[in-house]
Amino acid sequence: MKKGPYISDSTLRDGSHAMRHKFEKSQIEAYAKAAEEAKIPSITVGHGNGLGASSIQIGKSLVNDYDFVKTAYDQLSNTELAVFLIPGFGTVRDDVMPVLDMIDTIFAASHCSETDTTQSHIEFAVKNGKKAWGVMMMTHMLQPDELLVHAKKMQSYGANGILLMDSAGTLLNEDVKARISTLSNSLDIDVGFHAHNNLGLAVSNSLTAFESGAKMIDCTMRGFGAGAGNCPLEVLAAALQKQGYCTGMDLYKVMDISQDIVAPMMKKPQEISRTSLASGLAGVFSGFCPLAEKAAERFHVDSRDILMELGKRKIVAGQEDYIIQIASELAQKKNSKGES
User: What was the pLDDT predicted at 268?
Assistant: First the structure.
């Protein structure tokens, strides 16, 4: 069989959004142990927004960062362990240093046009012998040549690879192809892709990314993640095998993890709701969906209108306060028109 992409599994990280960051130790332990047995190459663990992000506003983790990482680490021998860090949420001193000896990879993430904020984090990872991936979020907001400029910054910091995230699940196949091919043809390091499924294209976009030069695909079991979720790992693995590619994983055991471990964790099936579909149309971060729904209920407006307005204003993660502001403005306009 032909060599397939390196599979990075973010179920215990992006799935945290869907769990309202309430993973229990027993669930972390069971998943990590099963991932090892299924020969999943790498798992990323922790709060959905990464190390140090646990908070009342975004979501308080049930398990603290150190215990989360340690619980997974104790189950792994061959599967690598990764953490995710967004500068501003977490710091090297307070959040990375305590778990440094247990991890193999650090994903240092920023908005796609703010990659300079990751310099010290990437350099720290490289200096300490860890794999460093520069993560560019909301990549639909820049054209391929613009993304390349910022990706080259991360490469200059010493990153081993660049992970492009379709954080809003808004990219079409041709958009993915243009972005991945531009970077993979121009950089000296690997390129990866992380899809969201707001438009139902997560698997297709991930396959397109691989065909366009991506060496790594980041996905989650059962698509478990923010909003409409991510590319479902077990489906991608099956599709790759059907195309004659080898991922090194035990596909049956991967299927078992999806059915027997992840499905019982889920409070509801991962689906494309009207809100997450609107998020994809608007090009808005998938994690805003539950916040938009709460604001819509409070102000008696349509969550889809909130998301479309967020998209018009190009609001990104970290600007959650605009959700309430926009909901209030929509309510005022509605009342001024005399609508009930």
Answer: 85
Residues with Cβ within 8 Å of residue 186, at least 6 apart in sequence: 148, 152
Task: Print burial letters for 205-223: b (CB count within 10 Å at least 16), e (below 16).
Answer: bbbbbbebbbbbbbbbbbb
Distance (Å, rounded) from C-alpha 8 to C-alpha 46?
14
What are 272-327's pLDDT values in tens digits? Answer: 999 999 999 999 988 788 889 999 999 999 999 999 999 999 988 778 889 999 99
Residues 6+ apart with CB under 8 A from 105: 42, 44, 80, 81, 82, 83, 125, 130, 131, 132, 133
Label residue 169 left, alpha or beta by phi (over 0 means left) and psi (-120 to 50 means alpha).
Answer: left
The mean per-residue pLDDT over the stretch 112-128 comes to 97
- pLDDT at 92 exceeding the cut of 70: yes
C-alpha distances (whole Å) from 136 to each of 194, 241, 298 are: 10, 28, 33
Mind listing the domains of the chain with CATH numbers?
2-265 (3.20.20.70), 274-336 (1.10.8.60)
Structure tokens at 327: 């909901």
Q: Which of 17, 21, 111, 150 is catalytic?
A: 17
In the three-class reduction of DSSP (H, G, I as helix; E, B as strand; rest coil), residue 296 is classed as: helix
What confidence tens digit (pLDDT) does each residue in 203-216 have?
A: 999 999 999 999 99
Beta strands in 159-288 (DSSP E): 161-165, 190-194, 216-219, 245-246
> The whole model's pTM is what?
0.94
User: What does the mean pLDDT of the chain come to?
Assistant: 95
Q: How far apart are CA 110 and CA 265, in angstroms?
A: 29
**Using CA atoms, how far apart are residues 114 and 138, in angstroms rounded to an integer?**
11
Please report, as a single letter, which amino acid is at residue 78: N
Residue 125's contacts (CB-CB under 8 Å, 6 or more residues apart) are: 105, 106, 108, 131, 132, 158
- Verify whether residue 150 is a known catalytic residue: no
Model confidence pLDDT, tens digit, residues 215-270: 999 999 999 998 899 999 999 999 999 999 999 999 999 999 999 999 999 988 88
Residues 312 and 284 sit within 8 Å (Cβ to Cβ): no
